[in-house]
Design a protein that fits this description.
The chain has about 170 residues and is of the alpha+beta class. The protein is about 35% helix and about 25% strand. It contains four helices and eight strands, in the order H-E-E-H-H-E-E-E-E-E-H-E. It has helices spanning about 15-50, 70-75, 85-90, 150-155; strands at about 60, 65, 95, 105-110, 120-130, 130-140, 145-150, 160-165. It has a six-stranded antiparallel β-sheet. A two-stranded antiparallel sheet has the order 1-2. Helix 1 (about 15-50) packs across helix 2. The radius of gyration is 23 Å and the shape is elongated.
């Protein structure tokens, strides 16, 4: 058996063309990831909004009554993400972010109890327009509602934020 040798011609592309191709591939992957994140965020928010009007019930996890952490658990369950049961434990999950960097889908945490630093309440950011941030949560007095983060009560008690969906 005789093997013939073929001359392989090396194709030389200008360096900028290689960089352009790498940039194009990277941008494509990044935009695809952004689309997936946007779809997941939309699903989480729309699921949370189906609970609007549900009465507050400490320890409750159903439409007949639920607390704030149950709302976020149920919302993220819609995209197969599990969160811890308490608001305090949820405040340690995901990536910590600054308030000025909030995006829909992020979790916001508050200290509404006697201890000023202990996280006792959680909400899900549903809309951000400039510095106007709205979040959905289970209020002890009004049940599941959407509230503006700049409301004095929540602005004073705000502690941190986390991004769960990257």
């Amino acid at each position: 058996m005789v093997l013939s040798r073929h001359k392989i011609t090396e194709i030389r592309l200008p360096r900028f063309l290689y960089l352009f191709l790498i940039l194009l591939l990277t941008a494509s992957c990044a935009s695809q990831k952004a689309k997936v994140r946007a779809k997941q965020v939309d699903e989480v928010i729309s699921t949370a909004r189906t609970y609007m009007g549900t009465p507050y019930k400490y320890g409750g996890t159903t439409r007949s009554g639920m607390d704030c952490s149950a709302l976020t658990i149920n919302a993220f369950r819609s995209i197969n993400l599990s969160l811890p049961r308490s608001a305090e434990d949820q405040s340690n999950v995901g990536e910590k972010i600054k308030q000025k960097d909030l995006q829909p889908g992020d979790l916001v945490f508050f200290a509404t109890g006697k201890r000023r630093r202990q996280v006792t309440h959680v909400g899900l950011v549903v809309d951000v327009r400039r510095s106007n941030v709205k979040f959905i949560h289970a209020s002890t007095s009004l049940g599941v509602i959407e509230t503006d983060l700049s409301q004095d009560y929540y602005a004073k008690r705000y502690r941190s934020a986390r991004r769960i969906i990257d």
